[in-house]
Amino acid sequence: MATKPEIDFPEGPPPTELVIEDLVVGDGPEAVPGANVEVHYLGVEFDTGEEFDSSWNRGESIEFPLRGLIQGWQDGIPGMKVGGRRKLTIPPEQAYGPAGGGHRLSGKTLIFVIDLLGTR
């Protein structure tokens, strides 16, 4: 999957729970809670469909420990296998908290499409 994903504009109200959707199921090693993961990802705001972050735009993947990430990633990536592509729709409680929380994405439901390139 060497191509940047496209996210269709979501319909209906934002979910109140984390929604995990496998777009492509990988066949490599499985990510476990607390693992280090190497990913390509794209993030958009649910309300506007506007992209706010993308490793694709920087032209390189990124690696980080899951425990340092927002709760939606900590809960949504484990079980995913290398080579897979997963869509996470994350309510504010599992992202950057309620509106007024000081982060520009506070109070927003976020959609990420994540390609898992490696885990250790």
UniProtKB/TrEMBL annotation:
PROSITE patterns for this protein: FKBP_PPIASE (PS50059)
Keyword Isomerase belongs to the record: yes
Gene behind this protein: fkbP
Domain PPIase FKBP-type per the UniProt entry, residue ranges: 34-120
EC number from the UniProt entry: 5.2.1.8
Family per similarity comment: Belongs to the FKBP-type PPIase family.
Keyword annotations of the record: Isomerase, Rotamase
Protein name: Peptidyl-prolyl cis-trans isomerase
Alphabetized Pfam families for the sequence: FKBP_C
